[in-house]
Write a structure and sequence with these properties.
12 helices, 11 strands, two-stranded antiparallel sheet, alpha/beta, 34% helix, globular, nine-stranded mixed beta sheet
């Protein structure tokens, strides 16, 4: 097995592009007009839409994702990726669906990591109960694995991760840790992401203990996101403490606790590519309602600099913002506890 080493520091080309992206954001903020230099510093690519779980506040889990289901082939990923020069500093492999349901995901990771990008994958971990897959992921050059586990016991975990199996998650995490030791690798970093709900707060201390016992590198406690902002849904899932939730109640429904912003950094520094090549401006566009173009029909740089993308950014700066922005975490304080 050939081991891929993830980059520990961005290449000069990636650093230069990061500086150009920063300049784009600064000039656009100051002038209130679109200035676009360079390519995205972060790209989210969706391996596919399939998932074995039924999380209540996930469009895939609820079964109401309106766009076509499918998965990204390695050949199509390579076709898109090869047009992006330089590669983004960070590639996030997730969106709607479980990345490891796509058998090409390990190959996608290897290919992207060779470009100098820090590749990060979020997973519900269960498929990593297969030792061979866990070792393949560890050897792929992956920089970080975000472990989605919302509880320190089976009952707590499956209260939100419906259809899940806590024992498979534990086995998957142990497989990753053991593979890192066996292959004598520092990476991927293992980050346990624990979403704080009303029902699992009592297990936060136990989760820290388990993280240490299992050999997880770090644990993050994240505030919950609601897709349904009704009074009842908030009361069902959100903690009582205002400090542990990102929403406030206005008497009718739940609203994000963030300052209104005239500028969105994401539009000048990041993009999302859905499994079929469709490019959308943000991960909050779950259904692909705002397509900027298709990176399989045109090159990604052509889409990034397209008239549709230019118009979208310009309209946003003017204050004409789509509904998806209402639940966006950009500028939100208190995302993590």
């Amino acid at each position: 097995m050939i081991l891929e080493k993830p980059p520990t520091f961005p290449t000069p080309a990636l650093l230069k592009n990061s500086a150009l992206a920063g300049m784009s954001m600064l000039l656009s903020r100051v002038t209130r007009k679109q200035v676009l230099l360079g390519m995205p510093v972060m790209l989210m690519v969706e391996p596919g839409t399939a998932c074995q779980l039924r999380c209540p506040h996930c469009p895939t889990g609820r079964g109401d994702l309106s766009r076509q289901a499918g998965r990204l082939s390695f050949d199509n990923f390579r076709k898109i990726w090869d047009t992006i020069k330089p590669a983004p500093v960070r590639l996030q492999l997730w969106n709607q669906g479980e990345p490891l349901t796509n058998p090409d995901t390990p190959k996608i990771i290897r290919y992207a990591a060779r470009s100098g990008s820090w590749v990060v994958m979020a997973t519900n971990v269960e498929l990593l109960a297969k030792k061979e897959l866990a070792e393949e992921i560890v050897a792929s050059g992956l920089y970080e694995v975000v472990l989605s586990l919302d509880g320190a016991s089976d009952n707590s975990h499956i209260a939100y991760r419906e259809g899940g199996d806590f024992s498979k998650v534990e086995t998957g995490i142990r497989n990753l840790v053991e593979a890192k030791k066996r292959l004598k690798l520092k990476y991927p970093l293992l980050t346990w992401q624990f979403i704080m709900f009303r029902h699992n707060l009592h297990e936060m201390t136990k989760a820290k203990q388990l993280a240490k016992k299992w050999g997880v590198d770090r644990i993050q406690f994240k505030t919950a996101q609601l897709e349904d902002l009704s009074k009842d849904e908030g009361e069902k899932w959100l903690p009582d403490s205002p400090k542990l939730r990102r929403y406030k109640f206005n008497g009718d429904n739940w609203l994000l606790k963030r300052r209104e912003r005239f500028f969105c950094d994401r539009l000048f520094s990041t993009a999302v590519i859905l499994w079929d090549g469709t490019v959308v401006p943000c991960c909050f566009d779950k259904d692909g309602s705002y397509p900027m173009g298709n990176a399989l029909e045109n090159t990604f740089p052509e889409v990034w600099h397209s008239k549709d993308y230019h118009k979208f950014r310009s309209e946003w700066i003017k204050g004409n913002r789509p509904e998806m922005c209402d639940n966006c975490t950009e500028g939100l304080r208190g995302l993590y506890f």
